[in-house]
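Protein modeling request. Please complete all fields; requests missing the sequence field cannot be processed.
Requester role: graduate student
Desired output: 3D structure, token encoding
Chains: 1
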Amino acid sequence: MGFPGAAPGAGPDQPWGILGPRFTIASALIDGQYSLWPTATKVVTAEEARAAVRTAKAENADFIKIYSFLLPEAFHALNDEARKVGLRIAGHQPVRIPVREVIAAGMRSYEHMYQMPLATSRDEDALLRRIVNTPIDPANPFAFWAVVAEAEMQASLSHSRSKAADLYDRMARGGTWQSPTLSVLRVHSSPPDTFVNDPRLIYMYKEVRKYWADSIRLIAPTTPEAIAAHRKYLRFRYDMLNAMDQAGVGIIGGTDAGNPFVIPGFAAHDELGLLVEAGLSPMRALQTMTRDAARFLKLDKTMGTATPGKVADLVVLDANPLTNIANTQKIHAVITRGKVITAEQRAKILADVAANAEKPQSQGAVRPACCHVGNQI
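Delivered output (377 residues):
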């Protein structure tokens, strides 16, 4: 989140300091035995989970990042060990554990609103049993993920307002935050060709653009019936997020850059617009990416608001975003650590990025990343 240099205390006049984002670093992704991610740290037993947390602590991770396939034994051991070493847990709701059980355990941030439709459904128990009883094919864990996604979509059709109110109250009282990444949900719910001509794709490597165009066809709806159902489901999740916000659940604006057509930097502006479309006021949307993101990361004493004594990271606009959230894109200048980046300098930076994107990518196609907390604007 924010802008300034990569190294604490580094400045533009120091050879080891570069102008770039400030990072809050997650652990290696910790998941169950049959993860979707080959690079994940896979844990099954309680001891494996505890060892993964100790490794993350030794490697100076700022928080533990978990994923969807963790089983109850491993999750609870991981959560207990994380509490002992002073690390918080964020990431995906483990799909085979009830949401309320995970909230009670103290997970602090939930990404993408995953499992929230299930936890507010009158059919929660039956749908969760279907997920738990579905075997995972080690050669194709995506097939299991498709069952989970279908169960969540079906759960939205049996939504219970009373169960939702109970869930949001538990989240608010427990200090649980939601990072909805509406940009990702919108892309996954739209026909596959919706975003292929986005002019901002000039800033992405050609290999990435091709990968995105190919991979989204495996996810996005294509028939008229499926498109209509996904459009309705997306609106349901927008309304769910608005209800969470009204109930006092903490909301963190995030984008999950790396997912198809979630373009780094630009996606933050898309996300602000979608938060407003979901029902948040422009001020609330802005707060999710500034004040509230800093609060969640426990950095609010030094950043997050324009307050004397805090770091001077500012975006200066030519129009008021409180009257139209799209005005966040009318950038006059960026100020980071006392350095002013003018519109002309930003244009040069973007031109250089576009030119570089036309060169062959040296490290191969980028696979989707997930679950960022905070953004660059």
